[in-house]
Structure formats: structure tokens, C-alpha cells
Amino acid sequence: MKKTERLKKNYEFRFILNRGKYYSGRYIEAFAVKNNLKVNKIGIAIKTKFGKAVKRNRMKRLIRESYRLNKKELKGNYNIVFLVKKNSNIYKVQFGEIEADMKKILSKIGQE
């Protein structure tokens, strides 16, 4: 994923979390807002209580890769913030489960 397709600033995250529409899967949840750009921008946020840096970074890699593989399902241009659900056990989650959640969420976002 290109660096121009990422959300980095705190005010961008806060705007999307406050004004965005909520979508939920089994392990991840997303907030999405339409943008006026020609590209989708995504941000990933994982709280520190979910584990040490190695586990959090692995979860971010899984989310980024599943987004990369499924971003063609998304019609329109959106700013999306992905969060890990509170009750999910990130130590045992597999890539297939994250990808299934991602497909479900992106298809819901693309329908609007």
C-alpha cells in the first residue's frame, strides 16, 4: 500500500471516528466516510492492551494485506479506520478469518 493511501494524523482519525458510519465484523470493526479524492485512504488503530508490539504489528499486517487483496470490491472513495474488536483474541486469529471480515465490511461499505 502506498503511503499516500494511509491516514496518519490524529485529527483525521478523530473526524472519521466521530462522523463515520460504523461497520462490524467478527474480529475487526470499521468507520468509513466518503472523501473527494480519487483514492481510498485507510488507517489502522490497535490499543496497547491487546498485547506487545509484535502481536499488534502482526495484526496490522494482516489487516493491511487483507485490505490490499480485497480493495477492488470497494466502489467509491472512502476514508476508513479499522479497529480491532475488544473481545477478539489476536493471539489465535488467522489470516482467513481477518480476510472474511474484511470482505464482509468492504462489501457493506461499497453498497452505499
Report the β-strand fraction as a percent range: 15-25%
Count of extended strands: 4
Secondary-structure element pattern, one letter each:
HEEEHEH
Structure annotation, total helices: 3
What spatial order of strands do you see in the largest sheet? Answer: 1-2-4-3
Radius of gyration: 13 Å
The secondary structure category is: alpha+beta
Distance between the termini: 24 Å
Shape: globular
For the largest beta-sheet, the strand count, sense and barrel status come to: 4 strands, mixed
Helix amount: 25-40%
Contiguous runs where pLDDT drops below 50 for at least 5 residues: none
Average per-residue pLDDT, rounded, comes to 89
Explain how this protein is built.
The chain is α+β, with helices and mostly antiparallel strands and 112 residues long. It contains three helices and four strands. Strands 1-2-4-3 form a four-stranded mixed β-sheet, sandwiched between helices. The mean pLDDT is 89.
Give the structure's gist in a few sentences:
With 112 residues, the chain is of the alpha+beta class. It has helices at residues 10-19, 53-70, 95-110; strands at 21-24, 28-34, 41-45, 78-84.
Topology, element by element:
Blueprint: H1 10-19, E1 21-24, E2 28-34, E3 41-45, H2 53-70, E4 78-84, H3 95-110
Parallel strand pairs: 3-4
Antiparallel strand pairs: 1-2, 2-4
Helix pairs in contact: 2-3
